[in-house]
Amino acid sequence: MTELRDAEARAASRRLLATSERELQRIVLDMHDGPVQDIFAALSQLQVLERALAGDPSSQQRSRQAVRLLERALSEIRNFIGAFRPPGFERRALGEIIEGLAVQHETLTEQGVELDLPDDLGDCALPTKIAIYRILQEALANGHRHSGASEQRVIVERQGGSLALTVSDRGRGFNPARVLAREEDVGVEGGHFGLRGIQDRVEMLGGTFALESAPGQGTSLTVTLPAE
């Protein structure tokens, strides 16, 4: 009976994660079709206004500053949309999706990613594929923001009926127990937002979560998820 309840709970968790992913993609599309287009239109109008203010240097300067602010906001929104745009989970294999994410991270951050993928990695269940992608995305982002390392290493391998993902760096490190405890209390600690979310996502799918780090000794995050 307990095993049946556990299986039902994992199935419900997978449905919840899939629903969350669909909702995220809806938000991304809404941002692209709404605010992005509005900002672009405002930029066009301001650029026209800037030219019309050629005889008023002070007002023209203010208009130019507004243009720069909107351009910066538009760039940040586009980066967000690019990061969360669906990578074609259903039609692309796991290895291809991971490689694409690594290239995207390097392009956006100029931080290197050493990728170790076996030739026979194969594919996996859709909820697991989505989870691995989002976990890797968050882990790479955290490593870029906090490690101070010039490169991160990503290893994905099959372990029987499971998939193991390890993300590591040789950066400044931190105290995992302290960070996770404070995340549990307030949702974020020192910018390490997302570690608790990664752990929760892994547990929802019946996987395992291991985090090793210490000040000055780098960080290694390993998650294992059922492949099917």
Describe the structure.
This protein has a five-stranded mixed sheet with strand order 1-2-3-5-4, covered by helices on one side. It folds into two domains: about 1-85; about 95-225, Heat Shock Protein 90 (2-Layer Sandwich), CATH 3.30.565.10. Strand 1 (about 110-115), helix 5 and strand 2 (about 150-160) form a beta-alpha-beta unit. It has about 230 residues and is α+β, with helices and mostly antiparallel strands. It is about 60% helix and about 15% strand. The chain has helices at about 1-35, 35-50, 55-85, 95-110, 125-145, 175-185, 195-205, and strands spanning about 110-115, 150-160, 160-170, 210-215, 220-225. Helix 2 runs antiparallel to helix 3 (about 55-85) and helix 4 packs parallel to helix 5 (about 125-145).
User: Total domains, how many?
Assistant: 2
Query: In angstroms, what is the radius of gyration?
Result: 21 Å
Task: Name the CATH homologous superfamily of the largest domain.
Answer: Histidine kinase-like ATPase, C-terminal domain
Task: Provide the CATH top-level class of the largest domain.
Answer: Alpha Beta
- Beta percentage is 15-25%
- Please report the total strand number as a whole number: 5
Secondary structural class: alpha+beta
CATH architecture of the largest domain: 2-Layer Sandwich
User: How would you sum up the major sheet?
Assistant: 5 strands, mixed
As a percent range, the share of helical residues equals: 55-70%
Order of strands across the main sheet:
1-2-3-5-4
Residue-averaged pLDDT: 81
Order of helices and strands: HHHHEHEEHHEE
